[in-house]
Hints:
Layout: H1 2-20, H2 24-31, H3 38-59, H4 67-83, H5 92-112, H6 123-140, H7 144-154, H8 158-182, H9 191-212, H10 217-237
Helix pairs in contact: 1-2, 1-3, 1-9, 2-3, 3-8, 3-9, 4-6, 4-8, 5-10, 6-7, 7-8, 7-10
Amino acid sequence: MTWLLIILFGFLAGLVQGLTGFGAAIMMMIFLPSILPIAESAGVASLIMAASVLTLVLRYRHDIHIKRIIIPFLVYASVAAWSVHLVRVLDVHLLRMLLGGLLIALSLYFSFNKNAGTKPYPWLVAGIFMIISGFFNGLFGIGGPLMALYFLSLANTTGEYIGNIQTFFLIDIVYITTLRVFNGILTTSVIPYILVGMVGAIIGTAIAAHLLNHLNIGTVKRYIYVFIGVSGIYYLLF
């Protein structure tokens, strides 16, 4: 039953990642902490997500603008490298609730303000997004929602948004996984969970990619704002 659930959540993770550009780790973290410690769960979720991310990077490789990714990643990665050590000493439940409240507020703001997110953010706002995202990525393996808003504000097409954010996540997966391995958080014992989850993730991503061909950037934005709110509710309740 455990393996079937890993495939199921991997499938849902790939589907959500393919449609919104983020969220695979969020889906996996609903289930994984019930069978693994939270630090390991975050690492396994990130690596399962790699299957979806790599698939999308290859599909949208012609829409990638690498110059838009470098500086955000450096800020994000620097914070994540620091926060990855804090999962054992911070009040994780309180932090999840704070993140949940923030995401719900952002979801409501962007859903009801039609002019929000239509142009690039000031560097101060973008920098705050990067810092918060990196912090929670190091703790839970979840840094996607605010980075999605950042890359969405720079994109003119769905392909441009998906290509850039997935390239960002691919670089991040390599980086944060290396940190977790060196810190002893991830070991070879979790490889079976990763491989089984990837099977579901690849199937879900393939279906999402087919559906995405029929969606414009405006529709994708609405999906993203709704899913950010759903993510926030999850963090508040669980």
